[in-house]
Amino acid sequence: xxxxxxxxxxxxxxxxxxxLSLEASTQIKSFLDHSPNKGSTKSSSLRLxxxxxxxxxxVIGTYYSGFYISNPTILGEKWFEKNNFYPYRxxxxxxxxxxxxxxxxxxxxxxxxxxxxxLEDQKRSAGSLVTGLSFAFFESKGKYxxxxxxxxxxxxxxxxxxxxxxxxxSYNFGYVHTFVFKKRxxxxxxxxxxxxxxxxxxxxxxxxxxxxxEQFIFSYETRMALGYGLTYYFGMTTSRNEFxxxxxxxxxxxFNYTYFRVYFGRRFKVPFKVSFIDKS
Length: 280
Prior knowledge:
The structure is a single chain. The chain is mostly beta strands. It has four helices and twelve strands. The protein has helices at residues 29-32, 79-82, 112-116, 275-278; strands at 3-4, 11-17, 20-26, 42-51, 55-69, 88-104, 126-141, 161-181, 185-204, 213-229, 233-248, 251-266. Strands 1, 2, 3, 4, 5, 6, 7, 8, 9, 10, 11 and 12 form a twelve-stranded antiparallel sheet that branches. The model has no long low-confidence stretch (mean pLDDT 80).
C-alpha cells in the first residue's frame, strides 16, 4: 500500500550571497491540479544552506497535506472498473525537518560552490570522497488508520498505524564527482551511503501510544545534477533521493524521499556588503 501526494511540484524563489543561501517554495494551484481524480495536496518548503570550499550543509523543512493511495487495486482487482478516482485521504499530513553537514577531502580540485551555484569555476573534472552527519525529524499524522477498513482483516490490529514520529541520526561516507564539458556545462553524480540510528514511535488505532524504540538501519543518498552557466545566467536540474526501510511487526514500513529541482538564476553585482558574510 503506497501513499503519495498528488503532484509534489512547487514554485519558489531563492537568494544566494557568497556562502549563504535561502529558498522558499509553495504550490501554485493552477499548475498542479492536473490529476483531479487523485485529490488535492498542499505543500510548502523552506531551505537554509551554507556552502564553503571544504564543507557544506543545509536545513530544509517540508510540509505536505493530502495523500492518495497509488495502488488502489490492493483494495480490489476491479477497482478501476467500478471507480474513476483514487482513494484519497485529506486528513493525512506530514512534516519533515532534514539537516546535513558534509566535508570534502579533495577540496583542492573539487568545489561544491561550483556544482551548486557556479559561484566558483571548476575548469576540470574532479571528484572527492565525502563524509558527514545528517539529522532528520519526520512526523506523519492521520485521524484514522493508514490501513483502509476494507483491509483490516489482512493486517494485524497492532499495525493499524495512524501516526508515526521518526528521528534519525546517521553517519555518511561516499563519493561525489563533477564532470566538466567545454568549461560551461557539467554533470554531477554522487552516492553517499550511511549507517543510521533511528528512533521511532507509532500511534496505532485502538492501542495506547508506543514508546520510542531504536535500531540501526542502512540508508543511502544519491545525487545527480546537470547544469550550464554563462557569465550572468545559469541553469541546472538536480535530483536527490533518500531511502530507508524498516521491518517491524511482520511488515515493512518504508520512507522514500525524492527531491528534484529545476532552476534558473542570474548573478548580480551587489552594491553593498554584509559584514558577517564577507568576513567569513
